[in-house]
Input
Amino acid sequence: MSDITNPKSQILNPNSNNWYTSWFDTPYYHILYKDRNYREAQIFMDNLTHYLNLPEKAKVLDLACGKGRHSIYLNQLGFNVIGADLSENSIVEANKNANETLHFVVHDKREPFQDKFDAIFNLFTSFGYFEKEEDNIKTLISIKESLSEYGFAVIDFMNIYTVLENLIPNEIKEVDGITFHIKRYLLDGFIIKEIDFEDKGKKFHFTEKVRAYNLEDFQSMMDEAGIYLLDTFGDYKLKKFHKNTSERLIMIFK
Output
């Protein structure tokens, strides 16, 4: 693609080479997505933990936890939870909710944990950010290596077929007095979202870039990582996955 960054725009954390380390560490990311459905997230966690039949006080890792909305609710369900994210600012915010059985750490998901977990959750399309596919495979391997003998892992990803079918190329969204101009398109195997806005007299430009993986892509990577795909679901109520109609691609593996 042509130069995604706008030389006339101010990019926070300009020393970063990765879109996610700059964008996720800004307050604007949380402003733009402030209306996420918390009740829907809780229903998903209820259904998922019930399906996995997690033992009482199970050790759960919320990988790429952001500000910890899933981690906090999982802890309220009685689990010992660690939320991990690369964004230092998100972890600072999440740590306001920490307690004896809920902890948050800055962590690169390509690196395995020394601890072993009964469940590892990677939720809300928090996979496929890396330019090199080997880094995404490395993430899968680190998840596998961080599981206990009887543990399960879950990736909650977009269903690329319905996303592309319903992709909105241009959108204007106003939140908290800020007008976000959003462009979306598919390029070189990535779903690209460009976000432009002005605030306090300054122009900003950020990018989201996620690999457009389908189920077959995941199966191939999992085979390479030595992972067993056990089940797939198509939404947060854990209905069966259908390629052409499902909202999500939710994969259970170990």
About this structure: The first strand starts at residue 59 and ends at 63. The first helix runs from residue 19 to 23.
